[in-house]
């Protein structure tokens, strides 16, 4: 039995789809572990795959979720803070207690290659701690060090506004630069599925999924200009100067400025050559050449990649709800909402404007999350929480709706009614 985690996320979803569509492993030998089992798509459920609840914040649920399995596919938790390592330890300890023999873990491809075990990138630290803990656990392991996702290129390129007017000349300021490998996330998930299906061939190995080419941050920005016709002035500055520039120019909200040091450390690691290598493993597992940045240009350089998930307080409307729909209606139960608050509030996402919960520092996020759970959650679940609607417009008045929104005077939700 192989237990799969992260099955509704980018890598985990692609891995699961490949396992099922290509019948790499019999469905009877697969199990999904998820904190929100209601989020598993109907099409996946209809395959007959076993689904159990497993919440990284509740270790007791993990032992039951992993019980009877030989292999655990552990997708790293989406956080850049200390919490990530703590939750990974919960999963590893629970797996050992449940009798799991082998863990496949998704890490990051810093460190200069599969043999490297140090990095100056702050984002890599929880991964390296997890790798060491896993190796010392007594279980066998496979560590998959993933390339940077191609669609997240703008996080590295200095937070360009992809939806800016075509004639606007933007500034891209990078804190150091260097060669780096990039890969398509869906292809990384596909390759991961092939490792899962043949895990016995990768016992106690660290694999690097690097993608097909090495590019600097400046190289990618040049490709962005080539494919879109937009103009960007690019500068590579020392770390302190680059951070000061981004703070001064409001690249991120003021309350998130402290995170720029973490962000800059990625670039420092890259400038030191931590990602300046290519590995054939991804291509070998796919059986074809992985996609290049140019292959994905129409998608990753489009203005839609400048959009971001809205605040948690807007989650109900985003998921298709109405002002009368509660979070519990959408997510299934209060425990699912607590898990969602934990997950979403711990994901640092860079925003160039319209600050949201996910753009704030971790201390702010945690305090707000705790307030939501203790004060708002009961009202959400007993349906006494009301969303204030400023005004409902017929679709024909969309211009007026936008004018009200842009005026900054609205205090509630603005809803467009489509007959």
Automatic annotation (TrEMBL):
InterPro entries, sorted: NAD(P)-bd_dom_sf, NmrA-like, NmrA-type_oxidoreductase
Top-rank taxon: Eukaryota
Protein name: NmrA-like domain-containing protein
Segments forming domain NmrA-like: 2-243
Organism: Aspergillus viridinutans
């Amino acid at each position: 039995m192989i237990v799969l985690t992260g099955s509704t996320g980018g890598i985990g979803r692609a891995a699961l789809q490949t396992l099922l569509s290509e019948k790499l492993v019999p469905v009877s030998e697969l199990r999904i572990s998820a904190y929100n089992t209601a989020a598993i798509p109907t099409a996946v459920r209809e395959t007959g795959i076993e689904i159990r609840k497993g919440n990284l914040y509740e270790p007791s649920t993990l032992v039951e979720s992993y019980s009877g399995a030989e292999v655990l596919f552990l997708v790293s938790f989406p956080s850049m803070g200390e919490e990530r390592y703590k939750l990974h330890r919960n999963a590893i300890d629970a797996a050992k207690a449940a009798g799991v023999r082998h863990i496949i873990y998704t890490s990051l491809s810093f460190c200069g290659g599969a043999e490297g075990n140090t990095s100056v990138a702050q984002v890599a630290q929880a991964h390296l701690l997890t790798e060491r803990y896993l190796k010392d656990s007594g279980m066998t392991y496979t560590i998959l060090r993933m390339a940077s996702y191609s669609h997240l290129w703008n996080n590295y390129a200095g937070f360009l506004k992809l939806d800016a007017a075509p004639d606007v000349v933007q500034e891209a300021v990078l804190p150091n630069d260097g060669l780096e490998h990039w890969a398509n996330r869906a292809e990384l998930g596909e390759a991961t599925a092939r490792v899962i299906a043949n895990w016995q061939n990768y016992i106690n190995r660290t694999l690097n999924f690097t993608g097909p080419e090495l590019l600097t941050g400046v190289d990618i920005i040049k490709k962005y200009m080539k494919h879109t016709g937009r103009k960007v002035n690019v500068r590579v500055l020392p770390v302190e100067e680059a951070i000061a520039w981004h703070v001064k120019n409001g690249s991120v909200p003021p309350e998130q400025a402290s995170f720029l040091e973490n962000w800059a450390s990625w670039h420092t690691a890259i400038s030191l050559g931590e990602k300046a290598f290519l590995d054939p493993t991804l291509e070998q597992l796919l059986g074809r050449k992985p996609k290049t940045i140019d292959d994905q240009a129409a998608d990753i350089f489009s203005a839609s990649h400048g959009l971001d998930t809205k605040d948690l307080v807007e989650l109900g409307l985003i998921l298709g709800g109405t002002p009368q729909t509660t979070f519990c209606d959408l997510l299934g139960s209060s425990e699912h909402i607590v898990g969602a608050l934990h997950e979403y509030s711990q994901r640092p996402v860079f925003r160039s404007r319209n600050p949201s919960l996910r753009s704030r520092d971790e201390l702010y996020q945690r305090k707000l999350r705790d307030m939501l759970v203790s004060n708002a959650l009961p009202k959400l679940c007993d349906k006494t929480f009301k969303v204030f609607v400023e005004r409902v417009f017929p679709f024909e008045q969309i211009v007026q709706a936008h004018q009200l929104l842009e005026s900054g005077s609205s205090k509630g939700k603005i809803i467009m009614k489509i007959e």
